[in-house]
Amino acid sequence: MTPVTDTTLFPAVPDSADAVLDGLDPEQREVATALHGPVCVLAGAGTGKTRAITHRIAYGVRAGIIQPASVLAVTFTNRAAGEMRGRLRQLGAAGVQARTFHSAALRQLQYFWPRAVGGELPRLAERKIQLVAEAAARTRIRLDRNELRDVTGEIEWAKVTQTVPEDYPAAAAKAGREVPRDPAEIAGIYGAYEQLKRDRGCIDFEDVLLLTVGVLQDRPDIADQVRGQYQHFVVDEYQDVSPLQQRLLELWLGGRDSLCVVGDAGQTIYSFTGATPDHLLNFRTRHPNATVVKLIRDYRSTPQVVHLANGLLGQARGRAAEHRLDLVSQREAGPEPVYTEYTDEPAEAEGTARSIRALLDAGVPASEIAVLYRVNAQSEVYEQALADQGVPYQMRGAERFFERPEVREAGVALRGAARAGGNDVLLDDAVDLASQVRAVLAASGWTPEPPTGSGAVRDRWESLAALVRLAEQFATARTAAGAPAPTLADLVAELDERANAQHAPTVEGVTLASLHAAKGLEWDAVFLVGLTEGMMPITYARTDEQIEEERRLLYVGVTRARVHLALSWALSRAPGGRASRRPSRFLSGLRPGSTTAAGRTRGGAGGIERGSAARKRRGPAKCRVCGRTLTDAGEMKLMRCESCPSDLDEALYERLREWRMEEAAALGQPAYCVFTDKTLMAIAEAVPDSESALASISGVGRRKLDRFGAAVLALCAGEDLAPDPAEDGPEEAADQAPEEPAAD
Description:
Blueprint: H1 17-20, H2 26-33, E1 39-43, H3 49-62, E2 71-75, H4 78-90, E3 97-100, H5 101-116, E4 123-124, H6 128-138, H7 145-160, H8 168-175, H9 183-200, E5 202-203, H10 205-218, H11 220-229, E6 232-235, H12 243-253, E7 259-263, H13 278-281, H14 283-286, E8 291-295, E9 297-298, H15 303-314, H16 319-322, E10 328-329, E11 338-344, H17 345-361, E12 369-373, H18 379-388, E13 393-395, H19 405-420, H20 433-442, H21 456-480, H22 488-501, E14 510-514, E15 523-528, H23 544-558, E16 561-572, E17 608-610, H24 633-638, H25 650-667, H26 677-686, H27 691-695, H28 702-716, H29 730-736
Parallel strand pairs: 1-7, 1-8, 2-3, 2-6, 4-5, 6-7, 9-10, 11-16, 11-17, 12-14, 12-15, 13-14, 15-16
Helix pairs in contact: 2-3, 4-22, 5-10, 6-7, 6-9, 10-11, 10-12, 15-23, 17-18, 19-22, 20-21, 25-26
């Protein structure tokens, strides 16, 4: 068995070309040693594709066959490009250009623009969506926020498919696009947008590719210079290449065949942006002599997860399905996937949060757990449920780690301390690297314990805490390798390398992300939620091709899990709603007791849990002011519309907040782990006078009722809380301590 990733944070550089090949499985080794001619790597999820292609580049460089500066490796995200650069650096192949398509094109365009066109390259537009809004206004069309986003997406699609404004309506119809407005209106906005950019002297990211293609097509001398620089090309995630990116790649190649592409048609999930797997599937037709290698050994997921993933694609149809890869897990057996049916969405969120709390209690780190959903609008109810359980979380797609203001400030402080050396008074009592970092970052707001509450203050602390953990790991790794004890200067250099590679340390917290945003990531435990018809597949997926892409999207979600995998759905949206929803068709024949279209019933281990058993069935949640049925999670917690007048007891609310602050400090937890602001507001509005009345408030579960109920009811009754026994002397506290409750 071969691990996918290196086992240490800072591995030693291989001492020879042959050493680069150590630890690769036979198929990965075949990729690494195929240095000539066109190469196509069909790599399933978790099979070590990045490992294979980075070792291929490094082997060629270390063997003297490839010059580092002659290699251009392109992928689709800055994170992936950064990871590739970091791995190449660790393998002794520094100097290789690993970039996104846009980054590589922009670099070339900036260099050649004065010569090809004259003057400076027009500036990049910072806010494309704002320009689209202005273009719509010019055409006297009003767009709401969602329409604005969708029209912007249509303009991006048109440009990467090289469609001009006047051809957009016909092209959209031919492609079966679900357009947000009349195609003629979108064409008008598109045309006005292009004119607005010309008026402002700016370009967008799609223009970067279009203009680079134009320069290389029109100026053979410049094309020859680029081709003289780059002789070897590697393209990762080749199934996601757009027609425009493929055209740029062909111009870079200039008829040569020193090309290695890597992809998996079963993970094509971005066709709405213009991506198509056709270039991958047709590779052998275009290059009859290509070396084709299949990577199917899955080092990421357990046999149970892999079995479900294979079964999911086993029911797929279409051309991509004909080229599917049957994965073979290389890991030991793990738990069966868990399928859970809930009565409503809040129940599903609460059940998911309880399961996550159980994993945390069992020792699974929060950073190794993810909740994945189809659309970002589903996140709110899970944010609330996790907060109610006292579980920290982070939203995928937030600002990059090294670009956060507090991380930049910390970098400046660490760099200053490194220059000052022994003259920095902050370091007087610091004996090693970790204590030096803690001392420096203490001046920036780091403390040994996290602050109470959530929001920006907690986010800042989490960032600084991640830097402290990184320093500790860096020192441990250097010591284990027998190297001298690292200095602050060593750490600053490592941080600079990581910033350049976008290789951020892990911030502790459960990840909440859409399935699209989860591509390329992995966790020990994954919760796939909201798996109902209309959401998975999404309601606007109507054609066979669109339905199959939704199946592939779920496949991507399944293959993010290493060990624990939970799949769930709710029969209604709101509590007490009509149970009219059905589980996703993609689970038919896979979840226990279900049948496929062919009528086969799945048996085997596991079963469907009825999550509703843990939650009493209630009638529809209605506003207690106007009587309207509530569907918003925040409104259901308050039991009133946000717009309806509140009868909040402000004095009680303040007392509850003060009590919560003290309770959280005593527990050493953030304030929201006791009760969220919305729950406190709901309590202060309802002013419950009994345990049952308090229990009826959303966010007050059995666990919190037992722990905090007496204190909350006392505050609601206007009573003063008795002092904590722990504040008395040790003997008195021992006399007053209650008996330990019996185990459940």
